[in-house]
Amino acid sequence: MLGREFQKLWVGQSISAVGSSITQFALPLTAALTLEATPEQMGVLTAATWLPYLLFGLLAGAWSDRLRRRPILIVTDVVRAAVLGTIPLAAALHVLTIAQVLVVAFVAGSMTVVFQSAYRPYIPFLVGRDALVQANSRLALSESVARVAGPSLGGLLVQLITAPIAIAADALSFVVSAVAVSLIRATETLPPKSERRSIWTEMGEGIRVAFANRFIRTVLTMSFMFNFAITMGDAVFILYVTRQLGLDAAHLGVVFTVGGLASVGGAAIVSRYIARLGIGPGVVTGLLTLTIGGTLVLVAGGGPDLATVYISARAALFGFSAAVINVTTGTVAQAAIPDRLQGRVGGAAQLISLGLIPVSALLGGWLGSNVGLWNTLALSVGAQLAAFLYVVTSPLRGIKTARDVMDVPASAGAVGSNA
To answer: What percent of the chain shows pLDDT beyond 90?
Structure first.
Protein backbone atom coordinates (compact mmCIF):
# COMPACT_ATOMS: atom_id res chain seq x y z
CA MET A 1 0.00 0.00 0.00
CA LEU A 2 1.28 3.43 -0.92
CA GLY A 3 -0.55 5.27 1.87
CA ARG A 4 -2.88 8.25 2.12
CA GLU A 5 -0.15 10.89 2.07
CA PHE A 6 1.20 9.63 -1.23
CA GLN A 7 -2.36 9.58 -2.60
CA LYS A 8 -2.62 13.33 -1.94
CA LEU A 9 0.58 13.98 -3.85
CA TRP A 10 -0.64 11.71 -6.63
CA VAL A 11 -3.98 13.49 -6.98
CA GLY A 12 -2.36 16.91 -7.11
CA GLN A 13 0.22 15.85 -9.66
CA SER A 14 -2.38 14.07 -11.80
CA ILE A 15 -4.41 17.26 -12.17
CA SER A 16 -1.33 19.40 -12.68
CA ALA A 17 -0.08 17.01 -15.36
CA VAL A 18 -3.25 17.57 -17.41
CA GLY A 19 -2.74 21.32 -17.25
CA SER A 20 0.94 21.02 -18.14
CA SER A 21 0.06 18.87 -21.16
CA ILE A 22 -2.22 21.63 -22.37
CA THR A 23 0.58 24.19 -22.07
CA GLN A 24 3.11 21.93 -23.79
CA PHE A 25 0.63 21.86 -26.66
CA ALA A 26 -0.55 25.49 -26.52
CA LEU A 27 2.62 27.46 -25.73
CA PRO A 28 4.57 26.57 -28.90
CA LEU A 29 1.37 27.04 -30.92
CA THR A 30 1.01 30.48 -29.35
CA ALA A 31 4.49 31.32 -30.61
CA ALA A 32 4.22 29.60 -34.01
CA LEU A 33 0.65 30.50 -35.00
CA THR A 34 -0.49 33.48 -32.94
CA LEU A 35 2.84 35.36 -32.94
CA GLU A 36 4.27 33.88 -36.19
CA ALA A 37 7.62 32.97 -34.62
CA THR A 38 10.67 32.26 -36.80
CA PRO A 39 12.67 29.00 -36.51
CA GLU A 40 15.29 30.85 -34.45
CA GLN A 41 12.61 32.18 -32.09
CA MET A 42 11.18 28.68 -31.68
CA GLY A 43 14.66 27.49 -30.76
CA VAL A 44 15.01 30.33 -28.25
CA LEU A 45 11.60 29.41 -26.75
CA THR A 46 12.72 25.83 -26.18
CA ALA A 47 16.03 27.10 -24.80
CA ALA A 48 14.25 29.49 -22.41
CA THR A 49 12.24 26.59 -21.02
CA TRP A 50 15.32 24.47 -20.34
CA LEU A 51 18.00 27.06 -19.51
CA PRO A 52 17.04 27.06 -15.79
CA TYR A 53 18.28 23.47 -15.49
CA LEU A 54 21.75 24.70 -16.45
CA LEU A 55 21.61 27.81 -14.27
CA PHE A 56 19.85 26.56 -11.15
CA GLY A 57 19.69 22.74 -11.18
CA LEU A 58 22.73 22.09 -8.99
CA LEU A 59 21.97 24.87 -6.51
CA ALA A 60 18.28 23.93 -6.23
CA GLY A 61 19.17 20.31 -5.48
CA ALA A 62 21.62 21.12 -2.70
CA TRP A 63 19.23 23.72 -1.28
CA SER A 64 16.32 21.26 -1.16
CA ASP A 65 18.37 18.89 1.04
CA ARG A 66 18.44 21.63 3.69
CA LEU A 67 14.69 22.29 3.82
CA ARG A 68 11.42 20.43 4.17
CA ARG A 69 10.32 19.63 0.67
CA ARG A 70 6.54 20.06 0.99
CA PRO A 71 6.69 23.90 1.29
CA ILE A 72 8.97 24.01 -1.75
CA LEU A 73 6.39 22.10 -3.79
CA ILE A 74 3.58 24.43 -2.69
CA VAL A 75 5.44 27.69 -3.39
CA THR A 76 6.67 26.64 -6.81
CA ASP A 77 3.16 25.53 -7.82
CA VAL A 78 1.74 28.92 -6.81
CA VAL A 79 4.41 30.88 -8.68
CA ARG A 80 3.91 28.82 -11.84
CA ALA A 81 0.18 29.45 -11.66
CA ALA A 82 0.75 33.19 -11.39
CA VAL A 83 3.28 33.51 -14.20
CA LEU A 84 1.36 31.32 -16.67
CA GLY A 85 -1.76 33.34 -15.92
CA THR A 86 -0.15 36.38 -17.50
CA ILE A 87 -0.29 34.79 -20.98
CA PRO A 88 -4.10 34.62 -21.34
CA LEU A 89 -4.41 38.00 -19.60
CA ALA A 90 -2.03 39.68 -22.07
CA ALA A 91 -3.73 37.95 -25.00
CA ALA A 92 -7.14 39.17 -23.86
CA LEU A 93 -5.73 42.71 -23.69
CA HIS A 94 -4.07 42.31 -27.13
CA VAL A 95 -0.60 43.08 -25.77
CA LEU A 96 0.98 39.61 -25.92
CA THR A 97 4.47 39.53 -27.47
CA ILE A 98 7.04 36.85 -28.16
CA ALA A 99 9.27 38.48 -25.52
CA GLN A 100 6.64 37.88 -22.85
CA VAL A 101 6.23 34.26 -23.93
CA LEU A 102 9.99 33.76 -23.60
CA VAL A 103 10.08 35.34 -20.13
CA VAL A 104 7.14 33.23 -18.96
CA ALA A 105 8.79 30.07 -20.32
CA PHE A 106 12.00 30.92 -18.42
CA VAL A 107 10.33 31.77 -15.10
CA ALA A 108 7.99 28.76 -15.22
CA GLY A 109 10.95 26.57 -16.16
CA SER A 110 12.93 27.92 -13.22
CA MET A 111 10.10 27.04 -10.84
CA THR A 112 9.94 23.57 -12.39
CA VAL A 113 13.65 23.05 -11.66
CA VAL A 114 13.13 23.94 -8.00
CA PHE A 115 9.97 21.81 -7.86
CA GLN A 116 11.70 18.76 -9.31
CA SER A 117 14.63 19.13 -6.90
CA ALA A 118 12.18 18.51 -4.06
CA TYR A 119 9.55 16.34 -5.77
CA ARG A 120 11.62 13.29 -6.74
CA PRO A 121 13.38 13.01 -3.34
CA TYR A 122 10.00 13.43 -1.61
CA ILE A 123 8.65 10.19 -3.11
CA PRO A 124 11.04 7.78 -1.26
CA PHE A 125 10.22 9.65 1.97
CA LEU A 126 6.47 9.09 1.46
CA VAL A 127 6.50 5.45 0.30
CA GLY A 128 9.86 3.87 1.21
CA ARG A 129 12.31 2.38 -1.27
CA ASP A 130 10.69 -1.03 -1.64
CA ALA A 131 7.58 0.63 -3.12
CA LEU A 132 9.42 2.90 -5.56
CA VAL A 133 8.52 1.01 -8.73
CA GLN A 134 4.85 0.94 -7.69
CA ALA A 135 4.81 4.64 -6.79
CA ASN A 136 6.68 5.72 -9.92
CA SER A 137 4.41 3.55 -12.04
CA ARG A 138 1.33 5.19 -10.48
CA LEU A 139 2.70 8.66 -11.18
CA ALA A 140 3.74 7.67 -14.70
CA LEU A 141 0.24 6.35 -15.37
CA SER A 142 -1.25 9.67 -14.30
CA GLU A 143 1.17 11.59 -16.50
CA SER A 144 0.31 9.27 -19.37
CA VAL A 145 -3.41 9.79 -18.92
CA ALA A 146 -2.69 13.52 -18.89
CA ARG A 147 -0.99 13.17 -22.26
CA VAL A 148 -4.29 11.86 -23.59
CA ALA A 149 -6.64 14.30 -21.88
CA GLY A 150 -4.34 17.33 -22.09
CA PRO A 151 -3.77 17.53 -25.84
CA SER A 152 -7.36 16.55 -26.61
CA LEU A 153 -8.64 19.25 -24.31
CA GLY A 154 -5.89 21.57 -25.49
CA GLY A 155 -6.77 21.06 -29.15
CA LEU A 156 -10.41 21.82 -28.40
CA LEU A 157 -9.52 24.90 -26.36
CA VAL A 158 -7.13 26.18 -29.04
CA GLN A 159 -9.85 25.84 -31.66
CA LEU A 160 -12.50 27.51 -29.48
CA ILE A 161 -10.64 30.20 -27.56
CA THR A 162 -7.11 30.33 -29.13
CA ALA A 163 -3.83 28.93 -27.83
CA PRO A 164 -2.91 31.74 -25.39
CA ILE A 165 -6.25 31.57 -23.55
CA ALA A 166 -5.98 27.77 -23.29
CA ILE A 167 -2.93 28.18 -21.05
CA ALA A 168 -5.23 29.45 -18.28
CA ALA A 169 -6.20 25.82 -17.64
CA ASP A 170 -2.60 25.02 -16.68
CA ALA A 171 -2.45 27.97 -14.31
CA LEU A 172 -5.57 26.68 -12.56
CA SER A 173 -4.15 23.14 -12.35
CA PHE A 174 -1.11 24.39 -10.43
CA VAL A 175 -3.41 25.99 -7.89
CA VAL A 176 -5.16 22.64 -7.40
CA SER A 177 -1.80 20.88 -7.05
CA ALA A 178 -0.66 23.37 -4.40
CA VAL A 179 -3.83 22.76 -2.38
CA ALA A 180 -3.42 18.97 -2.61
CA VAL A 181 0.20 19.06 -1.46
CA SER A 182 -0.70 21.41 1.40
CA LEU A 183 -2.99 18.66 2.77
CA ILE A 184 -0.09 16.20 3.20
CA ARG A 185 0.57 15.69 6.91
CA ALA A 186 3.77 13.62 6.82
CA THR A 187 6.59 15.65 8.40
CA GLU A 188 10.19 15.29 7.32
CA THR A 189 13.04 15.31 9.80
CA LEU A 190 15.73 17.72 8.70
CA PRO A 191 19.44 17.03 9.20
CA PRO A 192 20.84 19.06 12.11
CA LYS A 193 22.25 22.44 11.09
CA SER A 194 25.52 21.38 12.69
CA GLU A 195 25.97 18.80 9.91
CA ARG A 196 25.68 21.39 7.15
CA ARG A 197 28.69 22.42 5.15
CA SER A 198 28.96 25.26 2.67
CA ILE A 199 26.40 25.12 -0.12
CA TRP A 200 29.25 24.91 -2.65
CA THR A 201 30.73 21.88 -0.89
CA GLU A 202 27.35 20.13 -0.91
CA MET A 203 26.84 20.98 -4.58
CA GLY A 204 30.24 19.46 -5.34
CA GLU A 205 29.31 16.38 -3.35
CA GLY A 206 26.26 15.91 -5.52
CA ILE A 207 28.38 15.87 -8.68
CA ARG A 208 30.99 13.54 -7.15
CA VAL A 209 28.41 11.01 -5.98
CA ALA A 210 26.59 11.11 -9.30
CA PHE A 211 29.74 10.31 -11.27
CA ALA A 212 31.23 7.85 -8.76
CA ASN A 213 28.25 5.47 -8.91
CA ARG A 214 28.51 3.58 -12.20
CA PHE A 215 24.75 3.13 -12.54
CA ILE A 216 23.89 6.77 -11.91
CA ARG A 217 26.72 7.81 -14.22
CA THR A 218 25.32 5.66 -17.01
CA VAL A 219 21.78 6.97 -16.54
CA LEU A 220 23.04 10.56 -16.66
CA THR A 221 25.18 10.01 -19.74
CA MET A 222 22.30 8.28 -21.49
CA SER A 223 19.90 11.06 -20.50
CA PHE A 224 22.30 13.75 -21.67
CA MET A 225 22.81 12.12 -25.06
CA PHE A 226 19.14 11.43 -25.72
CA ASN A 227 17.92 14.77 -24.42
CA PHE A 228 20.42 16.65 -26.56
CA ALA A 229 19.53 14.63 -29.65
CA ILE A 230 15.76 14.78 -29.22
CA THR A 231 15.65 18.49 -28.34
CA MET A 232 17.61 19.38 -31.45
CA GLY A 233 14.74 17.94 -33.48
CA ASP A 234 11.97 19.13 -31.18
CA ALA A 235 13.08 22.74 -31.71
CA VAL A 236 11.76 22.58 -35.28
CA PHE A 237 9.25 19.72 -35.02
CA ILE A 238 6.14 21.91 -34.74
CA LEU A 239 7.31 24.10 -37.63
CA TYR A 240 8.00 21.05 -39.80
CA VAL A 241 4.69 19.29 -39.23
CA THR A 242 2.58 22.47 -39.50
CA ARG A 243 4.35 24.26 -42.36
CA GLN A 244 5.68 21.39 -44.49
CA LEU A 245 3.35 18.50 -43.67
CA GLY A 246 0.27 20.71 -43.30
CA LEU A 247 -0.97 19.54 -39.89
CA ASP A 248 -3.29 21.93 -38.07
CA ALA A 249 -4.29 22.07 -34.38
CA ALA A 250 -6.88 19.31 -34.87
CA HIS A 251 -4.33 16.98 -36.49
CA LEU A 252 -1.85 17.73 -33.72
CA GLY A 253 -4.52 16.97 -31.15
CA VAL A 254 -4.86 13.51 -32.70
CA VAL A 255 -1.09 13.01 -32.64
CA PHE A 256 -0.77 13.96 -28.98
CA THR A 257 -3.79 11.87 -28.05
CA VAL A 258 -2.36 8.76 -29.72
CA GLY A 259 0.96 9.35 -27.99
CA GLY A 260 -0.82 9.75 -24.70
CA LEU A 261 -2.80 6.53 -25.14
CA ALA A 262 0.41 4.64 -25.85
CA SER A 263 1.97 6.23 -22.79
CA VAL A 264 -1.01 5.08 -20.72
CA GLY A 265 -0.49 1.57 -22.05
CA GLY A 266 3.21 1.69 -21.19
CA ALA A 267 2.58 3.02 -17.70
CA ALA A 268 -0.20 0.49 -17.07
CA ILE A 269 2.05 -2.48 -17.79
CA VAL A 270 5.44 -1.11 -16.76
CA SER A 271 5.49 -2.83 -13.36
CA ARG A 272 4.82 -6.24 -14.93
CA TYR A 273 7.10 -5.39 -17.84
CA ILE A 274 9.99 -4.62 -15.48
CA ALA A 275 9.24 -7.64 -13.28
CA ARG A 276 9.57 -9.91 -16.32
CA LEU A 277 12.52 -8.29 -18.13
CA GLY A 278 14.33 -6.49 -15.31
CA ILE A 279 15.06 -2.77 -15.03
CA GLY A 280 18.11 -2.76 -17.31
CA PRO A 281 16.60 -4.72 -20.22
CA GLY A 282 13.49 -2.56 -19.82
CA VAL A 283 15.59 0.55 -20.37
CA VAL A 284 17.29 -0.95 -23.43
CA THR A 285 14.09 -2.07 -25.13
CA GLY A 286 12.42 1.24 -24.31
CA LEU A 287 15.26 3.18 -25.92
CA LEU A 288 15.20 0.93 -28.98
CA THR A 289 11.48 1.66 -29.41
CA LEU A 290 12.15 5.37 -29.00
CA THR A 291 14.89 5.36 -31.63
CA ILE A 292 12.76 3.47 -34.15
CA GLY A 293 9.90 5.89 -33.58
CA GLY A 294 12.12 8.86 -34.34
CA THR A 295 12.64 7.70 -37.92
CA LEU A 296 8.92 7.94 -38.79
CA VAL A 297 8.90 11.74 -39.01
CA LEU A 298 11.50 11.46 -41.77
CA VAL A 299 9.22 9.39 -44.02
CA ALA A 300 5.93 11.15 -43.23
CA GLY A 301 4.11 12.70 -46.18
CA GLY A 302 1.24 12.20 -48.61
CA GLY A 303 -0.95 15.05 -47.38
CA PRO A 304 -1.97 16.13 -43.88
CA ASP A 305 -4.18 13.13 -43.12
CA LEU A 306 -1.63 10.49 -44.14
CA ALA A 307 1.18 12.45 -42.52
CA THR A 308 -0.84 12.44 -39.32
CA VAL A 309 -0.82 8.63 -39.41
CA TYR A 310 2.99 8.58 -39.55
CA ILE A 311 3.39 11.22 -36.87
CA SER A 312 0.82 9.48 -34.67
CA ALA A 313 2.72 6.19 -34.97
CA ARG A 314 5.86 8.06 -33.95
CA ALA A 315 4.01 9.52 -30.98
CA ALA A 316 2.76 6.06 -29.99
CA LEU A 317 6.27 4.60 -29.92
CA PHE A 318 7.57 7.66 -28.08
CA GLY A 319 4.74 7.55 -25.55
CA PHE A 320 5.15 3.86 -24.72
CA SER A 321 8.92 4.04 -24.44
CA ALA A 322 8.90 7.24 -22.39
CA ALA A 323 6.69 5.62 -19.74
CA VAL A 324 9.05 2.64 -19.46
CA ILE A 325 12.24 4.74 -19.49
CA ASN A 326 11.03 7.27 -16.93
CA VAL A 327 9.99 4.62 -14.41
CA THR A 328 13.11 2.49 -14.81
CA THR A 329 15.71 5.27 -14.75
CA GLY A 330 13.87 7.15 -12.00
CA THR A 331 13.81 4.04 -9.83
CA VAL A 332 17.55 3.46 -10.34
CA ALA A 333 18.34 7.02 -9.26
CA GLN A 334 16.06 6.95 -6.20
CA ALA A 335 17.25 3.51 -5.05
CA ALA A 336 20.97 4.09 -5.49
CA ILE A 337 21.28 7.38 -3.56
CA PRO A 338 20.97 7.79 0.26
CA ASP A 339 18.07 9.96 1.40
CA ARG A 340 20.26 12.76 2.73
CA LEU A 341 21.89 13.14 -0.71
CA GLN A 342 18.79 12.81 -2.87
CA GLY A 343 18.36 16.55 -3.49
CA ARG A 344 21.96 17.44 -4.32
CA VAL A 345 22.49 14.36 -6.51
CA GLY A 346 19.16 15.08 -8.20
CA GLY A 347 20.34 18.63 -8.80
CA ALA A 348 23.54 17.33 -10.34
CA ALA A 349 21.43 15.02 -12.48
CA GLN A 350 19.33 17.95 -13.71
CA LEU A 351 22.47 19.90 -14.57
CA ILE A 352 24.18 17.03 -16.38
CA SER A 353 21.25 15.46 -18.20
CA LEU A 354 19.24 18.62 -18.96
CA GLY A 355 21.69 21.51 -18.69
CA LEU A 356 22.75 21.58 -22.33
CA ILE A 357 19.23 21.29 -23.72
CA PRO A 358 19.17 25.09 -24.33
CA VAL A 359 22.30 24.71 -26.47
CA SER A 360 20.65 21.84 -28.34
CA ALA A 361 17.48 23.89 -28.85
CA LEU A 362 19.42 26.86 -30.21
CA LEU A 363 21.43 24.52 -32.42
CA GLY A 364 18.21 22.96 -33.72
CA GLY A 365 16.75 26.39 -34.49
CA TRP A 366 19.94 27.44 -36.29
CA LEU A 367 20.10 24.20 -38.26
CA GLY A 368 16.42 24.54 -39.19
CA SER A 369 17.12 27.92 -40.77
CA ASN A 370 20.42 27.00 -42.42
CA VAL A 371 20.25 23.35 -43.47
CA GLY A 372 16.47 22.79 -43.53
CA LEU A 373 13.85 21.40 -41.18
CA TRP A 374 13.93 17.81 -42.51
CA ASN A 375 17.73 17.68 -42.39
CA THR A 376 17.69 18.88 -38.79
CA LEU A 377 15.26 16.12 -37.85
CA ALA A 378 17.49 13.57 -39.63
CA LEU A 379 20.52 14.72 -37.62
CA SER A 380 18.45 14.35 -34.46
CA VAL A 381 17.55 10.75 -35.30
CA GLY A 382 21.19 9.91 -36.06
CA ALA A 383 22.27 11.25 -32.68
CA GLN A 384 19.57 9.16 -30.96
CA LEU A 385 20.96 6.03 -32.61
CA ALA A 386 24.45 6.84 -31.29
CA ALA A 387 23.00 7.25 -27.78
CA PHE A 388 21.23 3.89 -28.02
CA LEU A 389 24.47 2.14 -28.98
CA TYR A 390 26.11 3.60 -25.88
CA VAL A 391 23.42 2.19 -23.58
CA VAL A 392 23.61 -1.28 -25.15
CA THR A 393 27.26 -1.50 -24.06
CA SER A 394 26.73 0.00 -20.58
CA PRO A 395 26.37 -1.68 -17.13
CA LEU A 396 22.77 -0.50 -16.97
CA ARG A 397 21.60 -3.41 -19.07
CA GLY A 398 22.42 -5.91 -16.30
CA ILE A 399 20.19 -4.43 -13.56
CA LYS A 400 17.25 -6.64 -12.61
CA THR A 401 15.67 -4.99 -9.55
CA ALA A 402 16.08 -1.81 -7.49
CA ARG A 403 17.96 -3.81 -4.85
CA ASP A 404 20.75 -4.40 -7.38
CA VAL A 405 21.68 -0.71 -7.12
CA MET A 406 20.78 -0.02 -3.47
CA ASP A 407 23.72 0.83 -1.23
CA VAL A 408 26.24 0.47 -4.03
CA PRO A 409 29.43 2.14 -2.75
CA ALA A 410 30.26 5.45 -4.39
CA SER A 411 33.56 3.93 -5.47
CA ALA A 412 31.82 1.19 -7.44
CA GLY A 413 33.13 1.83 -10.89
CA ALA A 414 35.55 4.70 -11.45
CA VAL A 415 34.49 7.58 -13.61
CA GLY A 416 34.77 6.59 -17.22
CA SER A 417 34.50 2.84 -16.56
CA ASN A 418 31.74 0.70 -17.99
CA ALA A 419 32.68 -2.30 -15.88
So the answer is: 17
pTM: 0.69
DSSP 179-200: HHHHT----PPPPPGGG---HH
User: What amino acid is encoded at 107 in this protein?
Assistant: V
* CB-based contacts of 396, cutoff 8 Å, min separation 6: 215, 218, 219, 222, 280, 283, 284, 332
- Phi, then psi, of 176 in degrees rounded to 5: -60, -45
Which residues, other chains included, contact 271 with Cβ-Cβ below 8 Å and sequence gap of 6+?
Answer: 133, 134, 137
**Sign of the four-CA dihedral 361, 363, 366, 371:** negative
Please state, in angstroms and rounded to a whole number, the distance separating the CA atoms of residues 136 and 327. 6
Contact (Cβ atoms closer than 8 angstroms) between residue 346 and residue 122: no
DSSP string, 281-330: HHHHHHHHHHHHHHTHHHH--SSHHHHHHHHHHHHHHHHHHHHHHHHHHH
List of residues 6+ apart from 195 with CB closer than 8 A: none
For the stretch 261-309, pLDDT in tens is: 787 788 778 778 777 888 888 888 888 999 899 899 999 988 889 999 9
Rounded CA separation 412/210 (Å)? 11
Task: Please state, in angstroms and rounded to a whole number, the distance separating the CA atoms of residues 141 and 282.
Answer: 17
Residue 334 contacts residue 213 (beta carbons within 8 Å):
no
| Residue 404 pLDDT grade (very low, low, confident, very high; cuts 50, 70, 90) | low
